[in-house]
Amino acid sequence: MYNETNKEEKLTKEERDILERNLKICFDFIVESTGAKSFDIENKEEFLKEFSPWHKTEGQKLIQDFVDNVNNDNSTDDFSWFDILDDDVRWQEFDDNALKKQIKENKQKFPNMRYQIPEHCHGDIDKAIIFHCMENPKGYVSDKLWGKKKESAPSLKDYYKKTANNRNEKNRKGSVEEIIKERYKLKHRYNLENIDRKFVEKVIFSEESALESDFNHMFNTFNKEDFEKTYSFSKASSDLIEFYFLKNFYYQLIQDEKLPNIKELEGKREQFEKFSKQFCNLEIYPFSASYPYLKSEEIGGKFIDNSDLSRLGIYIVLRRVYIYLINKKENEKEQNPVFILRKYEKAWKQLFIKILEEVEKEEKQNGRSFEHAKVLSLLEKGFFYCQTGQQGGGITDGNVISVPNFRTVGRKNSKEFKKTKLNDFNSIKSLLTKVEK
User: Is 256 helix (H, G, I), strand (E, B) or coil?
Assistant: First the structure.
């Protein structure tokens, strides 16, 4: 069944035109300030080569270094995902030398960030409709584990052995290669036999959404009996534990029922893969950690404020809105994207403001007009939703609300607040093309 709920435009044509002009100014500034080459902003490949560290030569070399370490079991070699910052100009200008030294030399600190494969973006940044903008990937062990027990500093091998043991994984006594193959379900989830660059690239940055990956894994492993079973979606249940995003984040969006009927998925692989391509997952901070560390004085907060690494997520959001506004002029039926931003006020909003203020300062110095508050207000009005739960990032009828509604509907009026969240959730759900029964 296709959901044809009336989709009310949140921005007037005049507001869309204002936002388009200002986003054009933003990208002109971003291109000039970063030293990027002049290029077609609508060309995805050119955009990523300019602004994604993972697509540049240095990022590709770091990915290959990881592959070589794992496949050759050279885990005593000095490897760290933090090395992606070596070519980050903004980070090099940051003057916290004590933190930089700690990152380079103290291997007992932040083991998840140092060794676990980062995750930055999963989905088609050109065409996705729902962008789930999150914090950072979860780490597999406490970030304080080695320092607390005064164990020797971990190597890449130590990290994967320790995390496999803590997680009671099947191959916890095997090689690093075997542990990674089992942990990431290499064959069933990625259709790969070996750990190679293609695999690592997909974990970090892929056009395959997290939900699409879950569906691929399900359709590759489930038989008829598996589809026939009744599953619990309780967080305490081990049911569907391998399908993390489907179970924990998007289950209310899959079908018309509040809890999906897995049986109805059988035989509809192509339809559900097409459905899942409407999603994109962004992390404001790509390194894994047992705790987000996103406060301004913490390591994640310092990365967000002082590196180009987190700015990539902001650029992707601004670019997707800009492309929508351009296409909307030629096709009034163009579907607008929405952005559900986890920890919006504490993380995402602050970086939006920082970047937009930089643009405003530059424009004023050149005698031109640019109001960062106006631009952010239009983005919030037309596209931005936040999540109200302190824990849990599921896009559910009790956990999402538009940013303007969050500010105007008082929580003390719990009945109205709950009703508003339900309406906003249904508004998001109505944007998705549903799977035919």
Answer: coil
The mean pLDDT of 258-275, rounded to a whole number, is: 93
Per-residue tokens: 313: 């997520």
Token pair in block for residue 275: 């459905």
Measured distance CA(396)–CA(401) in Å, rounded: 10
Q: What's the CA gap between 321 and 337, in Å, rounded?
A: 7
Phi-psi region of 40 (alpha: psi -120 to 50; beta: other; left: phi over 0): beta
272 neighbors 264 (Cβ within 8 angstroms): no
- Residue 172 CB neighbour total at 10 angstroms: 18
Report d(CA 26, CA 131) in Å as an integer: 20
Burial class (CB in 10 A: 0-12, 13-18, 19+), 230: exposed
Q: What angle do CA 97, 98, 101 make, to 5 degrees?
A: 85
**100 has a pLDDT exceeding 90:** yes
Tell me how far apart the alpha carbons of residues 338 and 377 are, in angstroms, rounded to a whole number. 15
DSSP labels for 176-239? HHHHHHHHTTHHHHH--SS--HHHHHHHHEESS-HHHHHHHHHHHH--HHHHHS-----TT--T
- What is the CB neighbour count within 10 angstroms for residue 266? 15
Residues 6+ away with beta carbon under 8 Å from 94: 100, 302, 306, 307
User: What are the angstrom distances between the C-alpha of 392 and each of 75, 279, 406?
Assistant: 34, 18, 18
Q: 135: phi > 0 → left, psi -120 to 50 → alpha, else beta; which? A: alpha
Under 8 Å between Cβ of 335 and 430: no
Collapsed DSSP state (helix, strand, coil) of residue 143: coil
Tokens standing for residue 380: 């919030």
Report field, pTM of the whole predicted structure over 0.85: yes
| pLDDT tens column, 108-166 | 889 999 999 999 999 999 999 999 999 999 998 888 777 665 566 788 988 998 889 88
Q: Within 10 Å of residue 7's Cβ, how many Cβ atoms? A: 13
Contact between 384 and 402 under an 8 Å Cβ cutoff? The reply is yes
- For the residues 31-54, what does the mean pLDDT come to? 89
